[in-house]
Write a structure and sequence with these properties.
With about 280 residues, the protein is an alpha/beta fold. The chain is built from nine helices and twelve strands. The strands form three sheets. The chain has a six-stranded mixed β-sheet, with helices on both faces. It has a four-stranded antiparallel β-sheet with strand order 2-1-4-5, covered by helices on one side. The longest helix has 16 residues. It is globular, with a radius of gyration of 22 Å. The mean pLDDT is about 85.
C-alpha cells in the first residue's frame, strides 16, 4: 500500500519545552490511524506539523509525497483538518460555515454536498442557527462537517468525538470506516480509551516520544487478564497474559484437552452495553 503520511525524526521545541522528541511514524493509504496519549504528550503538535501550521526544529514530514510545511498550500486542498478547538465563525450560521469551507475548496455541487455533510453530523435541523449559540458538542459537529465537505484524500481529526453522544459517535465511526474502505486515509487523535480499538493501527505518544505503534489487537495482548475459576468448594484467581495461549495453559492444569490451542474471551465494552440498552429501550417504546 502507498504511504500517505511519513514522519521521520520529527522534533519540535517551544522555548525550553520539547513537544516532540524524534518521532517516526508512517500511515498507509486507506488506513485509520489512532493517535493516543495524555494531555501534553505532543499529539496536537504532531497534527499541526502534518498540516503545515508549525515548522519543526528537526526531522521531515511528508503528506501525499509532498514535504511539509513547504508544500502546505498544495496539500491542504487534499486534506480535511478538524482542530481540537473548533475553527468556525461564531457570527455565521452552521450552513454558512460549511458552505464557506466548501467554496474555499472549490467544491462542485456545493449545495448538495453541504446538505450531505450537515445530515451526516446531525445538524440539518440546526443549519440556520448561528454557531455562537451552539453548545460545545454541536460546534464540534459543525467543525467536522467543515472538514468533510470537500471529500478529502486525508482526514486529520483532533479529538473529533469530544462532547458527542455515544449513538452519534457510533455513526461517525461507521462513516469513517466506510471512507477508509474507499481509500481515504484518516488520522484521529483521541484520549478516549475505546476509540483506538476501532482503528487499524494505534500509535501511543508520551512526553514527545512514540512509545508504541501496533495493531489494537497486539497492543491489547500486551496486557493481563484476571481469571477466576470457580470449583465445587473453592475458587482460584490468577492473573495471566491476555493471549489465548496463556488462558489455555492455565486451564490445562484443570483437565483441558491439549488439543485445544486457545480460548478467546471478549467481554462487551461498557460502550457496547450502553448502546445495546439504548437500542433495546427504543424498540420497547
Amino acid at each position: 500500500m502507498e504511504t500517505a503520511i511519513s514522519v521521520k525524526g520529527l522534533m519540535k521545541r517551544y522555548g525550553k519545552v520539547h513537544a516532540l522528541k524524534g518521532v517516526d511514524l508512517s500511515v498507509k493509504r486507506g488506513c485509520i490511524y489512532g493517535l493516543l496519549g495524555p494531555n501534553g504528550a505532543g499529539k496536537s503538535t504532531l497534527i499541526k506539523s502534518l498540516v503545515g501550521s508549525v515548522r519543526p526544529n528537526a526531522g521531515t514530514v511528508e503528506v501525499l509525497g509532498h514535504p511539509m510545511p513547504g508544500s502546505a498550500r498544495a496539500v491542504r486542498a487534499c486534506v480535511g483538518y478538524m482542530p481540537q478547538v473548533p475553527a468556525v465563525y461564531g457570527d455565521l450560521s452552521v450552513r454558512a460555515n460549511v458552505a464557506f469551507f466548501a467554496h474555499a475548496h472549490r467544491v462542485d455541487q456545493l449545495e448538495q454536498k453541504v446538505n450531505a455533510a450537515l445530515r451526516f453530523v446531525g445538524l440539518a435541523e440546526a443549519a440556520k442557527r448561528k454557531v455562537e449559540t451552539l453548545s460545545s458538542g454541536l460546534k464540534q459537529r459543525c467543525s467536522l462537517a467543515c472538514a468533510l465537505v470537500h471529500a478529502p484524500e486525508i482526514l486529520i481529526l483532533d479529538e473529533p468525538t469530544a462532547g458527542v453522544d455515544p449513538i452519534l459517535k457510533a455513526g461517525f465511526w461507521r462513516h469513517f470506516r466506510n471512507l477508509a474502505s474507499k481509500g481515504t486515509t484518516i488520522l484521529i487523535s483521541t484520549h478516549l480509551m475505546d476509540e483506538p480499538l476501532l482503528c487499524d493501527t494505534v500509535g501511543i505518544l508520551r512526553e514527545g516520544h512514540l512509545i508504541v505503534e501496533d495493531t489494537p489487537e497486539k497492543i491489547m495482548s500486551k496486557g493481563n487478564t484476571k481469571v477466576t475459576l470457580k470449583l465445587m468448594h473453592t475458587s482460584i484467581e490468577k492473573e495471566i497474559g491476555s493471549d489465548a495461549a496463556s488462558l489455555s495453559g492455565f486451564l490445562a492444569g484443570f483437565g483441558l484437552s491439549p488439543e485445544v490451542e486457545g480460548i478467546i474471551l471478549r467481554p462487551e465494552s461498557i460502550e457496547e452495553i450502553f448502546l445495546k440498552l439504548i437500542e433495546e429501550k427504543g424498540h420497547d417504546q
